[in-house]
Design brief:
By secondary structure, the chain is mostly helical. It contains four helices and two strands, in the order E-E-H-H-H-H. The longest helix is centred in the middle third of the chain and has 50 residues.
Length: about 200
């Protein structure tokens, strides 16, 4: 890296070096007025004392860790939707063998495809995929329970326990996605924003 390519604003061993006050160290916002003490984008004290900058950065870093954890929780929906897809296939096959009804397999494979599509969608839109997934899965559980009650059968384990796990993980994914969105809005984070 040539000397001209070196970053003008950086942190080294806990010391903040601000050589270009027109570009924010935290949110990378450019064209900041040289007379402003704080960044208009994120509020970082560009012309503040080291103690002010350290306090801001510590809070920023804490919130960034909280954001990363919430984002991680929201992305768990992808895995659990794939699990729901696999369970749909299994229940379709088991139901077909047990009841000798081919429509059960078609229904199971149809639901598997829906959960598979939701799983891939969750990569880009974890909140939306989780909400749709929990509504569909919850509806299927209620329909299954109603069917089992009408037929006089026991719904219980092992599917009852798996259903609870899937619903809990999808609910946790929704909570994580909502929290991540809130933190992102509060802290003007983008994919390019890195401290």
């Amino acid at each position: 890296m040539e000397m001209d390519e070196a970053p003008k604003n950086f942190i080294k061993r806990g010391v903040f070096y601000i050589q270009d006050p027109t570009t924010c160290l935290i949110c990378k916002k450019t064209d900041l007025p040289e007379t402003d003490k704080f960044c208009a984008g994120c509020g970082f004290p560009m012309r503040g004392e080291q103690a002010e900058q350290s306090a801001f950065y510590a809070e920023y870093y804490r919130k960034r860790l909280e954001y990363d954890k919430a984002l991680e929780n929201s992305k768990s929906s992808r895995t659990i939707l794939f699990v729901a897809s696999g369970l749909s296939v299994i229940s379709g096959v088991v139901g077909t063998i047990k009841d000798e009804d081919p429509y059960t397999m078609f229904a199971g494979f149809g639901m598997a495809v829906i959960f598979l599509i939701l799983g891939f969608w969750a990569e880009k839109k974890p909140l939306e995929a989780s909400v749709v997934g929990i509504v569909i899965y919850g509806s299927l559980i209620l329909l299954s329970i109603a069917y089992f009650l009408v037929e006089g059968m026991d719904y219980g384990a092992p599917f009852g326990a798996l259903d609870i796990v899937i619903i809990v993980v999808l609910a946790k994914s929704i909570h994580g996605a909502l929290k991540a969105r809130k933190l992102q809005k509060e802290n003007v984070w983008t994919k390019e924003t890195e401290a």
